[in-house]
TrEMBL record:
Residue intervals of the OmpR/PhoB-type domain: 126-224
NADP found in the keyword field: no
Domain Response regulatory: 4-117
One Gene Ontology biological process: regulation of DNA-templated transcription
Alphabetized GO MF terms: phosphorelay response regulator activity; transcription cis-regulatory region binding
One cellular component (GO) term of this entry: protein-DNA complex
InterPro entries: CheY-like_superfamily, OmpR/PhoB-type_DNA-bd, Sig_transdc_resp-reg_receiver, WalR-like, WH-like_DNA-bd_sf
Modified residues (4-aspartylphosphate): D53
Full protein name: Response regulator transcription factor
Xref: Pfam families: Response_reg, Trans_reg_C
Entry keyword DNA damage: no
Length: 224
């Protein structure tokens, strides 16, 4: 699958040059020419990495990066004509994964994008998760307990898989929203509703069955 990049850059000539080269190198590129459009592109979903210019006509790229980092770990490479150490350090401290000073070669940009994507790629995870009598087959996207198959909706399955990957670990509602829905700005009631439905389905498994425990003031955990 072609990695999907968001290019947030106000210079149309530079953006066209970058977009043309990146698409020739196998990327899909969505261009936004200001902070408002860039924010919309990033929150639409499906973006694998952001190439972000700091000098935008309707706001600071650093402020856009700061807002993004409050809800997401989406990889970001800052590209800027500001090469001072202070600017580079500020960008990296706010959460940029890399910082590239203009002018630069398109080959270097492609190499930096590839390196960041490799670093951010999740590690290989086990295909089958066993938590007590619960078995979660991540390849088939199915879960069962003592041989009884659970009839789960997609988000219910995703919630169960997330909890089963770290049994005993407490996840906050915000963490679960980010992991499963990709956005912590949604209402936490979404998580409450899905936990309620999933608990009902787990309760119908033969005993002993894993259970989702509410840790008051913190979140939820899966206990074997």
């Amino acid at each position: 699958m072609r990695p999907h990049l968001a290019l947030i850059e106000d210079d149309p000539d530079f953006a066209l040059m970058c977009r043309t080269y990146l698409e020739r190198e196998g990327f899909t590129v969505t261009w936004a020419m200001d902070a408002r459009a860039g924010k919309a592109v990033m929150h639409d979903g499906g973006i694998d990495l952001v190439v972000l210019d700091l000098g935008l006509p309707d706001g600071s790229g650093l402020e856009l990066l700061r807002a993004l980092r409050s809800t997401s770990r989406l990889p970001v490479i800052v590209v800027s004509g500001r090469g001072d150490e202070t600017d580079r350090v500020a960008g990296l401290e706010i959460g940029a994964d890399d910082y590239l000073v203009k002018p630069f070669s398109q080959r270097e940009l492609v190499a930096r994008i590839g390196a960041v994507l490799r670093r951010c790629r999740p590690p290989e995870l086990p295909a089958v998760l066993d938590v007590g009598t619960l078995r979660v087959d991540t390849a088939a996207r199915q879960a069962s307990g003592t041989g009884v198959l659970l009839n789960l909706r997609p988000k219910e399955y995703a919630l169960l898989e997330a909890l089963a990957r770290s049994p005993g670990r407490v996840f906050s509602a915000e963490q679960l929203l980010e992991l499963i829905w990709g956005a912590s700005w949604q209402q936490s009631a979404t998580v409450v509703e899905h936990v309620y439905r999933l608990r009902g389905k787990l309760s119908r498994l033969p005993a002993p069955a894993p259970r989702i425990t509410t840790v008051r003031g913190y979140g939820y955990r899966l206990d074997p």
